[in-house]
Amino acid sequence: MDVVDNPDKSRFEMAVPGGMAFATYRRSGDVLMVPHTEVPRSAEGQGYGSALMKGVLEHARAHGLKVRPLCSFAADYMRRHPEYADVRG
């Protein structure tokens, strides 16, 4: 599944069954602050949130950015995946 940056809405998006999963962000310099992630209720518990966060972190790494997880889901994902410690901001 492709995670795409939608800078007009300040969020990363991923099409999932039943709608769109997304992670909102605010950018400050080279840091993306992620205050909210959302997956449609009908798609919860199927790994889409994790796929979304992986896409956000891969994007950050590829563009030399850091991610500061402000929502609990993003923070938990980053704690469970120490391979992304280099992008934690």
Describe, in plain words, how this protein is organized in 3D.
Strands 1-2-3-4-5 form a five-stranded mixed β-sheet. It is globular, with a radius of gyration of 12 Å. By secondary structure, the protein is of the alpha+beta class. β4 (31-38), α1 and β5 form a beta-alpha-beta unit. It contains two helices and five strands; from the N terminus they run ββββαβα.
Key terms for this structure?
single chain, 89 residues, alpha+beta, Aminopeptidase, five-stranded mixed β-sheet, 5 strands, globular
Quick gist of this model?
By secondary structure, the chain is of the alpha+beta class. It is 27% helix and 35% strand. The chain has helices at residues 48-62, 72-80, and strands at 4-6, 11-16, 19-28, 31-38, 66-69.
